[in-house]
Amino acid sequence: MNTITASTPIQIDKPLELEVVNMTKQFGTFTALDNVSMTLKPGTFHALLGENGAGKSTLVKCIMGFYTPTSGQVLIDKQVRTINSPRDAHQYGIGMVYQHFTSVPAMTVAENLVLSRFDSPNLINWKQEYEQLNAFMQTAPFQVPLDVPIAQLAAGQKQKLEILKQIYLKVRILILDEPTSVLTPQEADEVLGLLRQEVTAGKLSVLIISHKFREVMAFCDEITVLRKGKFAGRDLVKDLTVSDMSEMMMGEKREPKQVEKTKLKATTPVLEIQSIHADKDNGLEAVSGVNLTVHSGEIVGIAGISGNGQRELVEVLAGQRPATAGQMLVNGEVYTATRSQMYRHRIFALPEEPLRNACVAHMSVAENMALRTFDRPPQAKGLLLMFQAMRQMAQGLIARFSVKTPSTETPIGNLSGGNVQRAVLARELSAEYIQLLIAANPCFGLDFAAVEFIHTQIVEARNRGVAVLLVSEDLDELLKLADRILVISDGKFVYESATSNADFATIGRSMAGH
């Protein structure tokens, strides 16, 4: 079989077959992929499953040409193809939608679509382009207004645009990396349902990375499972249960654990938010006069689609963003989120994107675990003794919270996402006495085992009397953990209910702004 280079044209007028054969990828002495093979059949919807660090992202980055595999081949319709860049992948009809938006916020939908083309001209005939774009939109599975700047789109529309870009580029193999993480349940079903129609109509082959078993069961034909960088199995979805898929991923049969909550009377207010306002980075208002009380021994959940003010609210609470009006109280005292106040009131946080917001990537695991305590005894007693105390503390936390790291001296940026979050969780929950825990999307993108562990730790804190504010875009997570749930939309709370009485459909509509 001869290797065909990226200069060899390919006829792209039908869904294509994608095969990965015996692929290995090593980073120094670390083997991220070990002799993995996978087949995406033409005109099918295929899920790639595995825990964090199983090798899923490495595999698709090798397919897209971001990484050069150490060994192995990529075949498209039985032909070996050399893919050295995403441009090469596009030439063979492969496109990818990433976890984070790639559109330019200040530009319109039309401008982003035209500039996404690899053959975009230096001088653009906009009359001609609009004619072609309008014709494209008439046949597209989603409708997004062409003249609206990206910054004005809701998160669901932005994600639809990311998928539309690839369809506009006429890809025939579409790779999706956690595409529904910013969508309401209804939007997720709409997007995946419309893509399912494209697959069934013979227009696309789709490979999706997802941690949501419900979506896999509802929309996928087949799964391939990776475990610790190796192929762990494949099967037809119709022949599997959620428990079967979990067993393939983890090597053992696992059922999702129900959290056990102690019955507590949540009557003592710990956090009181009074008419808080806050702005986005661009000066527009993000939080519009919200009020909220979180009591001791209570988990209050805030649901909402990304971009509706919850990130800014959490940053105000954590001292990362100033409030423009209103006030906060903790234990009845005015709270301005200084480090000394957080220490005095025993306030801890699990922020979103911990590598960006809670860690220093190039510093060691031990140093990151000591960011709260390095200037207090027993660590603050001379440089040599400080590092010795930090290492001892880190060793205990690594064992207690099952953080997988080669050593306490490993840079934390080298760990998988799940283990970074475990390390932050260990730091934030290891204090002898906590009064308030603020958690923002603590399980985003994490695998089944890491999610279960973090959920258990949060509920155990609540059962000890800790007041917990849990902000999450995963509605299932909130319904499982929270005692009370609120929905934030356009910077305001638009729905509130005890979780036991919450209406799933109403919450979804409120999240979508209806």
Automatic annotation (TrEMBL):
<protein>
    <submittedName>
        <fullName>ABC transporter ATP-binding protein</fullName>
    </submittedName>
</protein>
<dbReference type="GO" id="GO:0005524">
    <property type="term" value="F:ATP binding"/>
</dbReference>
<dbReference type="InterPro" id="IPR027417">
    <property type="entry name" value="P-loop_NTPase"/>
</dbReference>
<dbReference type="InterPro" id="IPR003593">
    <property type="entry name" value="AAA+_ATPase"/>
</dbReference>
<feature type="domain" description="ABC transporter">
    <location>
        <begin position="18"/>
        <end position="253"/>
    </location>
</feature>
<dbReference type="InterPro" id="IPR003439">
    <property type="entry name" value="ABC_transporter-like_ATP-bd"/>
</dbReference>
<dbReference type="GO" id="GO:0016887">
    <property type="term" value="F:ATP hydrolysis activity"/>
</dbReference>
<feature type="domain" description="ABC transporter">
    <location>
        <begin position="271"/>
        <end position="514"/>
    </location>
</feature>
<dbReference type="Pfam" id="PF00005">
    <property type="entry name" value="ABC_tran"/>
</dbReference>
<keyword id="KW-0067">ATP-binding</keyword>
<keyword id="KW-0547">Nucleotide-binding</keyword>
<dbReference type="InterPro" id="IPR050107">
    <property type="entry name" value="ABC_carbohydrate_import_ATPase"/>
</dbReference>
<dbReference type="InterPro" id="IPR017871">
    <property type="entry name" value="ABC_transporter-like_CS"/>
</dbReference>
